[in-house]
Each structure stands twice: as structure tokens, then as C-alpha cells.
Known about the structure:
By secondary structure, chain A is α+β, with helices and mostly antiparallel strands. Chain A has helices at 15-30, 35-41, 46-58, 74-84, 87-103, 145-152, 156-166, 179-192, 234-257; strands at residues 3-5, 12-14, 33-34, 62-65, 68-71, 106-113, 116-122, 138-139, 195-198, 205-213, 219-228.
Amino acid sequence: MGLERGKNGAGTRIKSIYTTVAILEAIRNADGATLTELTERLDIPKSTIYHHLSTVCDCQFVRKEGMEYVIGHRFLTFAGPAREREEIYASGVKEVDKLANRAEKNAQIVVEENGRGVYIYHSKEDYQSDVTPYIGTVVDLHCTAAGKAILAHKPRADIHEWIEQFGLTRKTENTVTSKDALFDELETIQQQEVAFDDEEWIDGVRCIAAPVISETDEILGAVSVSAPTDQMNDELFYKELPNLVQNTTGVIEANTSYSSWSELSNAQADPSR
Amino acid sequence: MNYDTTTIGLVGLRDQGLIFGQVLDDLGLNLAGADVNPDVRETFERQFDADTYDDPKQLFEADIDAAVICSPNKYHVEPAIAALRHGYDVFVDKPLSHDLAGAQKIAAVEQEVDQFCMVGFHFRFDSACRILGEYIDDGYFGEIYHIEGRHIRRRGIPGRGTWYTSKDIAGGGAAIDIGVHVVDIILSFLDTPQIEEMMGVTRTKFGHREDYIYQHMHGEEGKPHRFNVEDSATMLLETDTGASASAEVAWAANGDPEHEYHIYGTDAGATLDLADTSFSEGYTRDETGAHNRITIYEARTKGEPHFSTSELEVERNDAFTAQFEYFLDHVESGEQPPINTAAQAVRVQNVISELYQ
Lengths: 273, 357
């Protein structure tokens, strides 16, 4: 069995699983690929790739369509429970749909996982599909509104550490790549509890987000609204939408805080009372 | 009832919970409480040497004698019903619920159980309000054909940016927060008629503004963008007895703070002044700022026609304390109180619900 040290010297790892993951990522990035294409993309022998593919096909994580290997639906079976575990998902889905409806723009729920933002929900109505981050999209925290809303809630030391680990990659002309500038912005975000992405992640897209914070001051994630710049004038961007988004996060926070109370009236009283 | 062996369980321990808690504590009662927030629980624990729980279920299973619900409006229904089903008489802070359906649910469950639900329309216990009520019951004013109720705060938006100003959680703004008192008093003075027509207007003119100028925030301040309710409202009501009423409420207005009722009758009229200027700007229960006045207007002939304007001198009381004493008397006797009932609260909720449509 191929064992190796994990990242940063952490415990023992199974090398071949990294290989499987690399193959799966390659299939996903290519949106389907043939064995030949995968061999060209990856620095792995063809026969090895083939054996991995056969195994994951047996497990239904990948299936073959003609000559192409594509990501299988089995991942959905796992993804469903994964996101349902998030309190923000259970308490937030309906509210985010209402938000999208009121704003007439796409709205999303983002949570942090391992220092990156993951889109775990996208409002039902699709207002502008070409700028939609699809569910499961992973983003950098420093250049998205939801990411900044999440980052702003961390203690300063943790933010420094985050920057050390992930860096401030430039995605567009507007991306914040200066540590000082980012800290200034995060301070404002922490006070206002609203964050803005003004074409800092994708050219031509503006986004507003607010954090969802629990009663114990834990950040559960963020809710964001996004649209192409030509549908997001300053009045909407800086005034109207922050109001809508924050009203929504307020309701989600309350739903989360009081979630255990929704079954109170069904509880059986102690008959000995 | 022996207050020092009686324990009241409060659900919702923030601002209103602390205020009610203080009144009950001053009466010599023991307290226990439930709230979702650990800091809020801790404050309550320290202030009243009370046990607290994060779930009302645990509170109701503890050794309490009655329940008081003062959580955010949307979260009245579940604990109120649970308290009733656990065999407790329950006092619910006004409004009974954030919406009509919630209020009706509570009233329905109350009908099924032996226990009763009382709602916090505390002005009914104000001595001036009670005295005027007696005059009205005696028919002193003749036919009362119109009542004008006004509850205006100069800058009194409670908890701006918290659940108070969230439509979803509070159910509304000024109308459901203070308008319910005005509607309740009007309905009581008119002897609970049916409302035939209602016309109303709601407005948001102050709360959503970044430059909302105030001296003290009434309650804690929350998120700056979290405000989607009305901060003033006007209502006009027509009843099945032919009497009409108007209600004017504002959390914020550029005008003098007021809390007054003008009663217009064929034989006499009155002004009831319940204003508490300390409330208009900050949240203190300062007795010196509170008015407690009844003026009666009549026209008489003795020799010659003349007008009579009488100022009644009424002894002040603490309506909050009076209402809890009343609640506890009925908890002890097991009798349903005839006023501030769930059914009465549903009638009020109905009017507010119409306004919001």
C-alpha cells in the first residue's frame, strides 16, 4: 500500500487516493474526458488512470458516456446530506428564495470550508444564468462579498494566518491584493455587517453579502446577491440591496436560534405534574 | 398567594424579560427563565439569582408555578401553547403573536385546556384608564360616537436593527408594537363593537435612515440595515354601533410626544392623558415623566348656560405591577380573568392584520 506523509507533515496518507482525486478533478474541470485526454492532462501512466477509472466506475462516482468519462450522480447522494447538516441551509433556503424574488437577482448561501468559500445553495429562480456560481463552486475569501463577510468575522491573527496560507490572488483589475487595504475593508465590514464585491472576482459582476451569525457569535456562513454591473447601479448596490440582504440574514439568524422551539407545542407534558 | 414560595418562569430574557423580571422580583417572587442566547441568560441569572435554560421545554419541566412569555413576537406561539399544555397559566406580552394565525392558534389551545392565557395590555391597569372606564360604563358621556387615540413618540424606535424592526419576526412595526394598546383601549371604551370598515395607512419615514437622530435608543441597537417595518400608522374605524374611531401611532415623529384618548359623547366628553415622556426618548420607567390625567368636558345650564371642564385628580399606580398582581390572583384562584384575554387580543390582532393588508 502506497503510504506517504500528508500535507504539512501531517500523519500517514494513502497515495493512490490522491491519484483518484486528481483524476476526478481533471474530469470535472474538463467537463468530461476520454482516457486519452486524461493521460495528456495528468502526469500519470495510462494504465494507472484506467485502473482508477474502472474502480470509481464500479463505485458509480464516474460513468462512461461513449468514449467519455463523466462525473457520476453518486456525488449528489453524498452532497445532499453534507449541505443539509449546515444550519444555515436548513434555516435559510426559503429566505434566500424570497430574497432573490424581492431583489429580482440571484441569491446564494456560502459557507466556509478549509479556508475557502463554498456555494451550497442557489436561489430557485435563475435571473442571470451566465454569471451564476453553480452549487459547489469554491471561491477565494478575499475577492468575493460572501468570502469577505466570512473573513471579517475572524480574529485579526486568524486573518493574517489565512493570508499567509492562501495569499491575495488577483482575479480582476479590482481585486484587493494589498494586505492593508484588505484589513481596512474588513474592519468596515465587521462594523456594518455588509460586504461588497465590485468586480473583484469576475469582471462585470457585482455582489453584496451579509454574514449569518449564531447566538454564540459563531459565523454560520453568508448570504449574497449578485448581478451583472449593468443591472446593479450604485443605488441598488450600496443602499437597497444591503437592506434586503441584511433583513434576510436577520430572519435566518432568528430561524437558526429558535429552531428547537418549533416543536415545543408538540412536546408531551409530564402527566405527573 | 405566598409570593416567596412561588416561581414564575419567563421565556425571553432580553429587554422585556428584564423589565418584567424586575417587576416580579420587586413583588417578592422567585424567577426562572429560558432564552436562546447564553449572554442574555447570564445577565438574567446574575440580576435575579435565577436558574435559566436554553430551551423553554426544560423551563416548563422545572418547578415553576406560572409562565410569562416575552420572547420576540414570532416566538410567542410555540412556548405559549407549550406552557398551556404543560398545565401552566400563561401571561403573554402584547401583541399575542406576530400575526393573526398565531394569535388564533394560541386562543384555540386556551379553549381546550383548563388553564388561561392573559395578554399584556397593561394600560388597562392604569388607574386613570380604569377610572375613565367606570365613567364610560356608567353612561356618563351619553352616546360615545367617536374616539380618537394617539400614541406618538418623538424618537422611540425600539431595538432598531434587531428583531423589533424585522417584519418577519415582529410582524410589523409601530402598529403592532404600540398600536395594539391604542386599538385595545378604543375597543374597550366602545364596549367591543364589531368593526365594519377599516381604512389605514402605514409609513416608514425614519427607521431606515442612516441619519436617524435620537438621544437614547429605546432598547439595544442592532444592524444598521435591518429595518423593514412601518414607523408610523394612521387608522380610521367604523363600527356596527355607528361609532367611529381613529388611531394615530408613531415610533418617531417630529412633534410632541403624546399618549391621549379623546372621547366624544353626546352628554359629555373626556381627554385621557397617559403620556409618559420618559418613554418617548429613552426606555426608563420614570414615574416623574408619566401623566395620569382625565379631563371631562360638559355643557350645563344652571341659571345660565355654561361650560364645565373638570380635571380629575387620580392617584398614580404602577400598571405593570397591577397587571401581574391581577394575573397571579387568578393563577391562585384558578378563575379565568375577564379582561386581557386571548380572545380580546385576537380582536386587536385582527384590526392590525387588516391594516397590514
